[in-house]
C-alpha cells in the first residue's frame, strides 16, 4: 500500500479545512485597539452636518462630538483624531487661528479631555483649515509654500494643542524639519509626555478629495496642488528617507498616507525602522467602499474588515479610519 507518487505530501488545504485550524494558524487579527477614529468638529451647539462625498460621516458640534467620543471609548477605540471645520471668517493668509487658545480645535480638546479622559486625543498640526488659500503653509509672493516660516506657525499650533490637553500631536503638513522644532518646543515648555505622530510619508494624493470637502478647504484650494511638499506617488525610497528624518528629529510614531494604494510603503517603513507605524485609510478610500456598498456591489462589512486587516498584515500597528466605529461594532458581533 504505497502512497501514490503523484499525490502531494504537503497539502496546504488541510489547515484550511475547518474553522478551528484556520483560527489556529491565523497570523494577523484586527481589534478595536488598532483603530483611531478621525472626526470633524463644527462651531455651535446641537449641530450635525452630513458630508456629501462621505455618506455616513458627519461634522459635529462639540457637545455632539463628546457624545460620539463616549461611544467610541465604550467600543474600545483607544484614540480619536480631531479635525476642525474653520468658519471662513477665521481663515487668513497667516493662519493665526491655528494657534488661538480659544480656537475650535483647542476648545474641543478641552471638552473631550474633561468628558472622556480615557480616550486619547490626536490633533492635526497643519495650516490648511486656517489659510484662506487652503494650502498647508504660508505663501511667498509667487505662491510657493514657505517652509521655515510655516514651521514657526506649526510650533505655536502644536504647543496650543498640548496646552489644551492633547496627548498626541500629528503634523500632517510635510514641511521639512518640523518634527525637530516641535519636539524642542514641547520639551522647552515642559510638555515632555506629548507624543508626536509624524505623517512622515504623506503623498500628494487625489484620494484626499472628500476630506477637503469635509473640512471646507476644497473651495479655498481650488485647482491648487500640494505637490511641492507632499510626496510624489511614484516614489518609495524617498518615503524611507523622510521617515528616517522624522525619527531622528524625535517622532514617537510614524505614518504612511493614504492606505491601500501605499501598503508597500507601510511594509518597507515597518521593516526598516521597527517603529510604531500607522496608516491612514483616507477619505477617498472610505468613499469608494461606501459607494460600492450603497450600490449593492460589495458586501460592506466583509470588504471593510478585509481592507483593515490587510493594513495590519502589511505591518501597520494602527489605522486611522472613518470606519472605526462600524468596524469596532462588527468586531464585537460574532458572524
Ligand atoms: N493637512 C491636511 C490633511 N490632513 C488629513 C488629510 C486627508 C485625510 C483624508 O483624506 O481622509 C489632509 C488633506 C490634505 O493634505 O489635503
Ligand atoms: Mg519630512
UniProtKB/TrEMBL annotation:
It holds the Pfam family ALAD. It is an enzyme of class 4 (lyase). Pathway: Porphyrin-containing compound metabolism; protoporphyrin-IX biosynthesis; coproporphyrinogen-III from 5-aminolevulinate: step 1/4. The active site is at 202 (schiff-base intermediate with substrate), 257 (schiff-base intermediate with substrate). PROSITE patterns: D_ALA_DEHYDRATASE (PS00169). GO terms for biological process: protoporphyrinogen IX biosynthetic process. It catalyses: 2 5-aminolevulinate = porphobilinogen + 2 H2O + H(+). Its EC number is 4.2.1.24. Gene3D superfamilies: Aldolase class I (3.20.20.70). It comes from the Bacteria. InterPro entries: ALAD, ALAD_AS, Aldolase_TIM. One of its GO terms (cellular component) is cytosol. One of its GO terms (molecular function) is zinc ion binding. Mg(2+) binds at residue 242. Keywords: Heme biosynthesis, Lyase, Magnesium, Metal-binding, Porphyrin biosynthesis. Homooctamer. Belongs to the ALAD family. This is Delta-aminolevulinic acid dehydratase. It comes from Acidihalobacter aeolianus.
Amino acid at each position: 500500500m504505497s502512497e501514490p507518487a503523484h499525490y502531494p505530501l504537503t497539502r496546504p488545504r488541510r489547515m484550511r479545512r475547518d474553522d478551528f485550524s484556520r483560527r489556529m494558524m491565523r497570523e494577523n487579527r484586527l481589534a478595536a485597539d488598532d483603530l483611531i477614529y478621525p472626526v470633524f468638529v463644527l462651531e455651535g451647539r446641537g449641530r450635525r452636518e452630513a458630508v456629501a462625498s462621505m455618506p455616513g460621516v458627519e461634522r459635529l458640534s462639540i457637545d455632539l462630538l463628546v457624545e460620539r467620543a463616549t461611544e467610541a471609548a465604550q467600543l474600545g477605540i483607544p484614540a480619536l483624531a480631531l479635525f476642525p471645520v474653520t468658519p471662513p471668517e477665521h481663515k487668513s493668509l497667516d493662519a493665526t487661528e491655528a494657534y488661538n487658545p480659544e480656537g475650535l480645535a483647542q476648545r474641543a480638546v478641552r471638552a473631550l479631555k474633561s468628558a472622556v479622559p480615557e480616550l486619547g486625543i490626536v490633533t492635526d498640526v497643519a495650516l490648511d483649515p486656517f489659510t484662506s488659500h487652503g494650502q498647508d503653509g504660508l505663501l511667498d509672493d509667487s505662491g510657493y509654500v514657505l517652509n521655515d516660516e510655516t514651521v514657526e506657525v506649526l510650533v505655536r499650533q502644536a504647543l496650543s494643542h498640548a496646552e489644551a490637553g492633547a496627548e498626541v500631536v500629528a503634523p500632517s503638513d510635510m514641511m521639512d524639519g518640523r518634527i525637530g522644532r516641535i519636539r524642542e518646543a514641547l520639551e522647552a515648555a515642559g510638555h515632555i509626555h506629548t507624543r508626536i505622530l509624524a505623517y512622515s510619508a504623506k503623498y500628494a494624493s487625489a484620494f484626499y478629495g472628500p476630506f477637503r470637502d469635509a473640512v471646507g478647504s476644497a473651495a479655498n484650494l481650488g485647482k491648487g496642488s500640494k505637490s511641492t511638499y507632499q510626496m510624489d506617488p511614484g516614489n518609495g525610497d524617498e518615503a524611507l528617507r523622510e521617515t528616517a528624518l522624522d525619527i531622528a528629529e524625535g517622532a514617537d510614531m510614524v505614518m504612511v498616507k493614504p492606505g491601500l494604494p501605499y501598503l508597500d510603503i507601510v511594509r518597507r517603513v515597518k521593516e526598516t525602522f521597527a517603529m510604531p507605524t500607522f496608516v491612514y485609510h483616507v477619505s477617498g478610500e472610505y468613499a469608494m467602499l461606501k459607494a460600492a456598498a450603497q450600490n449593492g456591489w460589495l458586501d460592506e462589512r466583509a470588504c471593510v474588515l478585509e481592507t483593515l486587516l490587510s493594513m495590519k498584515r502589511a505591518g501597520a500597528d494602527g489605522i486611522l479610519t472613518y470606519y472605526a466605529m462600524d468596524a469596532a461594532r462588527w468586531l464585537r458581533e460574532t458572524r
